[in-house]
Write a structure and sequence with these properties.
With about 180 residues, the protein is mainly β. The protein is about 5% helix and about 50% strand. It has a domain at about 60-165: Immunoglobulins (Immunoglobulin-like, Sandwich). The chain has 1 helix and 11 strands; from the N terminus they run E-E-E-E-E-E-E-E-E-E-E-H. Strand 10 (about 140-150) and strand 11 (about 155-165) form a beta hairpin. The longest helix is centred in the C-terminal third of the chain and has 12 residues, at about 165-180.
Length: about 180
């Protein structure tokens, strides 16, 4: 039975069996004391033991920008640095945080830093994400998502990017129509 998840266990009379109980709190569990009733029931008797689990803190992350603005403008075929802020809004330290981005096809994103080793409760860390838009991207609105996560918590920021074309490409386009 070692390592198995069971809700009940049948034993022969006069026998004993060691059991261990493992409890994992959800990421949204509030710091508090929780009672865990454990019962042993036989035809002749019922024994009850109340175990106590203590949740000492919580994990929580926020991802935003220094101004809270989640949109920016970028020129087709260029790179843009976007400033992000990762905040530990929980009550426990967060370790091994990884940053990532989901952008339109052919777009690229790199993060500096790409990993945060540890972030104490209530503290923030600045992160720069460099977004590269491919040449000849059509002007318009595009959506992307930046994420930060570890095993205990995650956060994301939905980011809107307005792609513009450069004046130079407009002029080249105009001149190409005028040439024979």
């Amino acid at each position: 039975m070692e390592g198995s998840q069971v809700r009940s266990l049948n034993l022969e009379g006069g026998k004993s069996q060691d059991i261990s109980i493992e409890v994992n709190a959800t990421a949204s569990a509030k710091p508090d004391k929780y009672l865990l009733p454990v019962k042993a029931v036989s035809q002749a008797d019922t024994l009850q033991l109340n175990l106590e689990a203590v949740v000492k803190g919580s994990y929580s992350l926020e991802l935003t920008t220094p101004t809270g603005r989640l949109s920016d403008e970028i020129t087709s075929g260029s790179r843009k640095d976007i400033q992000l802020v990762v905040k530990n809004s929980g009550t426990l330290p967060l370790n091994d945080l990884e940053l990532s981005g989901q952008l339109p096809p052919q777009w690229e994103s790199t993060f500096e830093p790409a990993k945060i080793q540890q972030l104490e409760p209530g503290k923030t860390t600045p992160v720069t994400v460099t977004v590269k838009v491919p040449d000849k991207t059509i002007a318009g609105d595009y959506a992307g998502t930046f994420s930060v996560k570890n095993t205990g918590s995650s956060a994301q920021a939905n980011f809107r990017m307005v792609v513009t074309t450069s004046l130079l490409s407009g002029w080249i386009g105009c001149w190409s129509f005028l040439l024979p």
